Amino acid sequence: MSSTNPLNVWIGAAPQDEAVVARLAGALGREGMNLTRRPRHTTLGELAAGLAKSQRLLACASSFYLKQPAGRFELEFARHVLPGGEEAIVTAVVGGYQEEVPSVRADLQAGEDWDSGLDRIAYWLGRAAVEESSGDE
After folding, report:
1. Of 83, 113, 81, 107, whose CA–CA distance to 95 is shortest?
2. Which of 103, 81, 84 is nearest to 92 (CA)?
3. Which of 12, 16, 107, 126 is the most buried (most CB within 10 A)?
4. Residue 37 phi/psi, 5° resolution?
């Protein structure tokens, strides 16, 4: 990942998960990623426009996020619009979710070491960006 072209990441999260998502966003911002968090009050059109400008979706899964129409929309839209489709979605469980979530890259609610979880999220967000840039050469 080049410092002149930071990775554009859309963070989808429920307002109820604000504390852990703010901590996660702060840490990823220090990694040099350009982060956009879903506004609290938004329309589906605004979600689509924001996601269309992004390269990745960081889905902060929780019992709240996966029940929200906006969360379900983000996941479905990202699968069809982001470069790499399903591979462009990185899922981190941030709280209150008991069912299995496909392709989880870190489970921050299960007592996983925070730094280890953050490292895995940053790796998976940046992994495809490295592959994309090496394919251009």
Report:
1. 107
2. 103
3. 12
4. -100, 140
Ranges of beta strands (E only) in the chain are: 8-12, 34-37, 56-62, 89-95, 104-107
Enter the tokens of residue 5: 């072209």
Query: 91-115 in b/e burial notation, b at 16+ Cβ within 10 A?
Result: bbbbbebeeeeeebbbbbbeeeeee
Q: Beta 8-12 vs 34-37: how paired, if at all? A: parallel
Q: Which residue has the tokens 């990441």?
A: 9
Name the pTM for this structure: 0.82
Q: Which residues pair with 56 in a beta bridge?
A: 9
Q: Which two tokens stand for residue 123?
A: 């790796």
pLDDT single digits (tens) 17-58: 888 899 899 988 888 888 988 887 788 888 889 898 999 999
